């Protein structure tokens, strides 16, 4: 884990969807509090937990879009 990466330490929950397509995996994560949704595409040989972690971290990096 890099120094700037911070997994929330509170009891935050995320909605996560993983779709595997051959050598690739698409992981989508939604923060239900902020309604921020992000997707990543990664190597399907990586662990599901690692791919989910990257997607969850990305929810905190992406700026919130106002409607």
Number of strands: 3
Largest sheet: 3 strands, antiparallel
Average pLDDT over all residues: 82
Flag low-confidence runs: 1-5
Can you give the helix content as a percent range? Answer: 10-25%
Strand content: 25-35%
Total domain modules = 1
SSE pattern, N- to C-terminal: EEEH
Shape descriptor reads: elongated
| Terminal-residue CA separation | 33 Å
Number of helices: 1
* Estimated radius of gyration: 12 Å
Q: Based on helices, strands and strand pairing, what is the structural class?
A: alpha+beta
Strand order of the main beta sheet, please?
1-2-3
Q: What's the assembly state of these chains?
A: single chain
Describe the structure.
This protein is an alpha+beta fold. The chain has one domain. Helices cover 21% and strands 34% of the residues. It has one helix and three strands, in the order E-E-E-H. It has one helix at 48-61; strands spanning 15-21, 24-31, 36-43. It has a three-stranded antiparallel sheet, covered by helices on one side. The model is unreliable at 1-5 (pLDDT under 50).
């Amino acid at each position: 884990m890099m120094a700037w990466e911070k997994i929330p330490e509170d009891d935050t929950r995320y909605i996560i969807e993983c779709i595997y397509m051959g050598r690739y995996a698409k992981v989508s994560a939604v923060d239900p509090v902020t309604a921020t949704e992000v997707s990543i595409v990664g190597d399907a040989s990586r662990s599901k937990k690692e791919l989910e972690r990257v997607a969850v971290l990305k929810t905190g990096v992406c700026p919130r879009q106002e409607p």
